[in-house]
Specification:
about 160 residues; about 0% strand; mainly alpha; two-stranded antiparallel ribbon
Length: about 160
């Protein structure tokens, strides 16, 4: 088994025991190898999620959870996404054993930052497009109202001449 695809013996609900929402005490009782797998897997998931946000944009409410530094990255916890916190700063050292992941983290944060800035200019473009649509619809309404008035005059005019 490789480090990327660890042996899943001792699993609960198709996930390894170490890849579950555990209390700090439960994490401390894990084997050292499992603690490392837990932290590295969570680090990889967090970075993958940030990369996704950098590519596809931030979902509503996600901005508050973006870990802009290593300490926040360490504390970021989201059991629904299986993102676990860890306390060992060696896990996320830029020049440490996960240096490649930390390079991806830095690049992902840059992409998210660009996405955040783009969102503002994107919203401005959307507002401008909507303004043009509103102006066109207002012109169309005026034209339609004029046509209705002309039709009303044609319908009312012949009745007035019959009396």
């Amino acid at each position: 088994m490789s480090e990327e695809f660890p042996d899943l013996t001792g699993t609960v609900d198709a996930f390894p025991v170490w890849d579950a929402d555990l209390s700090l005490g439960d994490v401390k009782r894990l084997r050292p190898a499992d603690k490392g797998l837990r932290a590295r897997s969570s680090l990889a998931r967090k970075i993958g999620l940030l990369e996704s946000w950098g590519r596809n944009g931030l979902p509503p409410g996600a901005e508050a959870s973006i870990p802009w530094d290593r300490a926040k990255l360490r504390r970021w916890r989201d059991p629904a996404r299986r993102l676990w916190a860890w306390v060992d700063p060696q896990v996320d050292m830029p020049k440490g054993r996960n240096a490649g992941l930390m390079d991806r983290f830095r690049l992902a944060l840059q992409a998210v930052q660009v996405r955040r800035k783009d969102r503002g200019s994107n919203l401005k473009r959307q507002v401008e497009a909507l303004k043009i649509t509103v102006e066109n619809l207002e012109r169309q309404n005026i034209s339609l109202l004029d046509q209705v008035r002309q039709l009303q005059k044609k319908v009312v005019a012949p009745r007035a001449t019959r009396s």
